[in-house]
Amino acid sequence: MLAEGFTEFVRRHKNIASLVAVLAALVISWGIFVYSDRLAYLARYGYIGIFFLSMLGNATILLPMPSMVSVYIAGGLFNPIIVGFMASAGGAIGELTGYLAGVGGHRIIKERKLFILIEKWVHRYGVVGIFLFAMIPNPFFDMVGLTAGLMRVPVFQFLVATWLGQTVKFLLISYLGAGSTGLMERWLH
């Protein structure tokens, strides 16, 4: 119901929604990038900290944030299954900034070659394509979110496909972190 209301609002108020979405995504990205060194303290809060680090790390658009490094390290310190699920939930919510920028920035990005390529891919494979892009660690997922917003993929479908893909990715990264901790302990003893 909430997703339908959001979609209806965007349809009725395209210009306002476009401007708000692009500005919000840019402000969030700028703030996270500028204050990234201060955000590291969130890791002290365990699973909730991992959730927020992942959410903020995935909320930036086209600016790299080390959320995968945080998950890798946290996998060695905490239960890697819970780490993977908390990171993927936060990451999926964070990716909504790219989606919203796509909803609002259609005039800006519609003619870019890379977006045209990704748009064809997402159009052909739908939410399965979004899932696959979210599952693979790559710098292009922000563009997938932008494209999904541009194509008006239903926000709920985008969110679920992103969460499922990121769950696979973050569980693997978390387990790699957990496994490397055991290797380090063996080498040091």
From TrEMBL:
Coiled-coil boundaries: none
Pfam family, one: VTT_dom
Keywords for the protein's UniProt record, in alphabetical order: Membrane, Transmembrane, Transmembrane helix
Keyword Ligase: no
Listed transmembrane segments: 16-35, 47-65, 77-101, 122-141, 153-178
All copies of domain VTT, residue ranges: 66-178
GO cellular component: plasma membrane
InterPro entries assigned: DedA_domain, VTT_dom
Protein name: VTT domain-containing protein
